[in-house]
Input
Amino acid sequence: MKIILRKDVDNLGDAGEVVNVKPGFGRNYLIPREFAYPATKGFLKVYEQEKKLHENKSARDLHKAQQLAGKLGNLSLEATVQVGEDDKVFGAVTAQDIAGLIAAKGYEIDKRDILLDEPIKALGIYNVPIKIATDVKAEIKVWVIKG
Output
Protein backbone atom coordinates (compact mmCIF):
# COMPACT_ATOMS: atom_id res chain seq x y z
CA MET A 1 0.00 0.00 0.00
CA LYS A 2 1.39 3.41 -0.95
CA ILE A 3 0.88 6.31 1.45
CA ILE A 4 1.85 10.00 1.69
CA LEU A 5 3.42 10.82 5.06
CA ARG A 6 1.92 13.89 6.76
CA LYS A 7 4.50 13.89 9.58
CA ASP A 8 7.99 12.51 10.07
CA VAL A 9 7.81 8.86 11.13
CA ASP A 10 10.87 7.14 12.58
CA ASN A 11 12.31 4.32 10.45
CA LEU A 12 9.82 5.10 7.68
CA GLY A 13 10.39 8.56 6.20
CA ASP A 14 9.91 12.30 6.36
CA ALA A 15 6.77 14.35 5.82
CA GLY A 16 5.74 14.54 2.16
CA GLU A 17 7.39 11.32 1.07
CA VAL A 18 5.44 8.62 -0.73
CA VAL A 19 6.35 5.29 0.86
CA ASN A 20 5.22 1.71 0.48
CA VAL A 21 3.99 0.00 3.67
CA LYS A 22 2.07 -3.14 4.52
CA PRO A 23 -1.69 -2.57 4.13
CA GLY A 24 -2.53 -3.31 7.77
CA PHE A 25 0.10 -0.90 9.09
CA GLY A 26 -1.13 1.88 6.86
CA ARG A 27 -4.86 1.25 7.31
CA ASN A 28 -4.85 0.47 11.05
CA TYR A 29 -2.07 2.68 12.40
CA LEU A 30 -0.76 5.45 10.16
CA ILE A 31 -3.99 6.73 8.58
CA PRO A 32 -6.20 6.73 11.75
CA ARG A 33 -3.50 8.55 13.75
CA GLU A 34 -3.18 11.14 10.95
CA PHE A 35 0.45 10.28 10.19
CA ALA A 36 -0.38 9.57 6.55
CA TYR A 37 -2.86 9.77 3.67
CA PRO A 38 -3.50 7.12 1.04
CA ALA A 39 -1.37 7.91 -2.02
CA THR A 40 -4.00 9.25 -4.41
CA LYS A 41 -4.04 12.40 -6.52
CA GLY A 42 -6.74 13.95 -4.35
CA PHE A 43 -4.82 13.42 -1.11
CA LEU A 44 -1.63 14.67 -2.74
CA LYS A 45 -3.42 17.99 -3.41
CA VAL A 46 -4.75 18.03 0.17
CA TYR A 47 -1.22 17.49 1.51
CA GLU A 48 0.17 20.30 -0.66
CA GLN A 49 -2.51 22.68 0.69
CA GLU A 50 -1.71 21.68 4.29
CA LYS A 51 1.98 22.23 3.60
CA LYS A 52 1.35 25.75 2.22
CA LEU A 53 -0.85 26.66 5.20
CA HIS A 54 1.79 25.38 7.61
CA GLU A 55 4.57 27.33 5.85
CA ASN A 56 2.49 30.53 5.84
CA LYS A 57 1.69 30.15 9.55
CA SER A 58 5.34 29.48 10.35
CA ALA A 59 6.41 32.57 8.42
CA ARG A 60 3.83 34.74 10.24
CA ASP A 61 4.87 33.36 13.64
CA LEU A 62 8.56 33.95 12.85
CA HIS A 63 7.84 37.53 11.77
CA LYS A 64 5.87 38.23 14.96
CA ALA A 65 8.66 36.70 17.07
CA GLN A 66 11.28 38.87 15.34
CA GLN A 67 9.19 41.99 15.94
CA LEU A 68 8.79 41.10 19.61
CA ALA A 69 12.54 40.42 19.88
CA GLY A 70 13.25 43.87 18.44
CA LYS A 71 10.93 45.51 20.96
CA LEU A 72 12.35 43.53 23.87
CA GLY A 73 15.91 44.30 22.76
CA ASN A 74 15.29 47.97 23.54
CA LEU A 75 13.81 47.16 26.95
CA SER A 76 15.66 48.11 30.13
CA LEU A 77 14.26 46.96 33.47
CA GLU A 78 15.03 47.99 37.04
CA ALA A 79 14.87 45.42 39.79
CA THR A 80 15.06 47.00 43.23
CA VAL A 81 16.37 44.74 45.96
CA GLN A 82 17.08 45.14 49.66
CA VAL A 83 20.74 45.19 50.55
CA GLY A 84 22.64 44.83 53.80
CA GLU A 85 26.14 45.80 54.78
CA ASP A 86 28.70 46.02 51.99
CA ASP A 87 25.82 46.07 49.45
CA LYS A 88 25.11 42.37 49.96
CA VAL A 89 21.76 41.50 48.38
CA PHE A 90 19.08 39.82 50.48
CA GLY A 91 17.56 37.09 48.34
CA ALA A 92 17.98 37.14 44.55
CA VAL A 93 16.41 38.31 41.32
CA THR A 94 14.93 35.23 39.63
CA ALA A 95 13.44 34.51 36.22
CA GLN A 96 9.98 34.87 37.77
CA ASP A 97 10.87 38.36 39.03
CA ILE A 98 12.11 39.34 35.58
CA ALA A 99 8.93 37.93 33.98
CA GLY A 100 6.91 40.12 36.36
CA LEU A 101 8.93 43.20 35.39
CA ILE A 102 8.41 42.43 31.69
CA ALA A 103 4.67 41.93 32.28
CA ALA A 104 4.54 45.36 33.95
CA LYS A 105 5.85 46.81 30.67
CA GLY A 106 3.02 45.11 28.75
CA TYR A 107 4.68 42.01 27.30
CA GLU A 108 3.74 38.43 28.16
CA ILE A 109 6.82 36.22 28.52
CA ASP A 110 6.80 32.87 30.29
CA LYS A 111 9.38 32.58 33.06
CA ARG A 112 10.70 29.36 31.47
CA ASP A 113 11.67 31.35 28.37
CA ILE A 114 14.00 33.59 30.38
CA LEU A 115 17.38 31.94 30.00
CA LEU A 116 18.89 32.84 33.35
CA ASP A 117 21.64 30.38 34.34
CA GLU A 118 21.28 31.19 38.02
CA PRO A 119 19.46 33.87 40.02
CA ILE A 120 21.13 37.29 40.16
CA LYS A 121 22.61 37.82 43.62
CA ALA A 122 24.58 41.05 43.23
CA LEU A 123 23.99 44.67 42.29
CA GLY A 124 24.82 45.68 38.74
CA ILE A 125 23.71 45.63 35.11
CA TYR A 126 22.96 42.27 33.53
CA ASN A 127 22.14 41.21 29.97
CA VAL A 128 19.47 38.53 30.23
CA PRO A 129 18.68 36.38 27.16
CA ILE A 130 15.06 35.53 26.41
CA LYS A 131 13.88 32.79 24.06
CA ILE A 132 11.04 34.16 21.93
CA ALA A 133 10.76 31.28 19.44
CA THR A 134 12.85 28.32 18.36
CA ASP A 135 15.38 30.39 16.43
CA VAL A 136 14.63 33.85 17.83
CA LYS A 137 16.21 35.24 20.99
CA ALA A 138 16.28 38.70 22.53
CA GLU A 139 18.47 40.22 25.20
CA ILE A 140 17.21 42.70 27.77
CA LYS A 141 19.12 44.77 30.29
CA VAL A 142 18.25 44.28 33.93
CA TRP A 143 19.53 46.87 36.37
CA VAL A 144 19.71 45.46 39.87
CA ILE A 145 19.68 48.45 42.20
CA LYS A 146 19.25 48.92 45.92
CA GLY A 147 15.94 50.15 47.10
About this structure: The two ends are 71 Å apart (CA to CA). The chain has two domains: 2-67, 74-146. Strands lie at 2-5, 18-20, 36-38, 76-81, 124-131, 137-146. The domain at 2-67 is CATH 3.40.5.10 (Ribosomal Protein L9; domain 1).
